[in-house]
Amino acid sequence: MAYCTVADIEGYSGMTFTTETRPKKAAVETMISDNEGKINAELTKQGITPPTSGYGFTALKQTAQYCVLADVCRANHTESETVDKYADLCTKGIEDIKKNPGLYDASMIGSISGSTKEEPVYDWDEKQW
Fold first, then answer.
1. Domain-by-domain residue ranges, the chain?
2. Contacts of 49 (CB under 8 A, 6+ apart)
3. Closest by alpha carbon to 120, among 58, 41, 65?
4. What is the pTM of this model?
């Protein structure tokens, strides 16, 4: 299951991808697949089965969208500030998998309190915002 769809990217970018656009719809689909593979590879390194729902999935969806948006901007030769912004958000999301693997592991969500609510567990002094 992909973290995002062409429709998600169209919503963020304000573009509609077809066989006539740059990038073409098929290229955007490839970007989505490639970035999903990159994210899943990092999850696998951490011993995590990619989530299909819940908090972890939502965070990974956002990361995937940023990664694909960076690729779409590169394909359109969009100004480098925009590319850099999305690329930085993509990198941050992937780095977060390394720093907080438990947030993406469905078997650990809610395990500390016994709650089934799917939300992150914060350290004592860590602020949510």
1. 6-104
2. 43, 105, 106
3. 58
4. 0.79
Local confidence pLDDT in tens for the 129 residues of the chain: 689 999 999 999 999 999 999 999 999 999 999 999 999 999 999 999 888 888 789 999 999 999 999 999 999 887 789 999 999 999 999 999 999 888 888 766 554 443 444 455 555 555 554
Residues 6+ apart with CB under 8 A from 37: none
Residue written as tokens 């650990």? 108
Q: Which residues contact 54 (CB under 8 A, 6 or more apart)?
A: 106, 109, 118
Angle between helices 25-45 and 80-99 (to 10 degrees): 30
CA-based radius of gyration for the chain? 16
- What's the CA dihedral at 89, 93, 98, 102 to 10 degrees? 150
Residue 31 burial (CB count, 10 A): 23
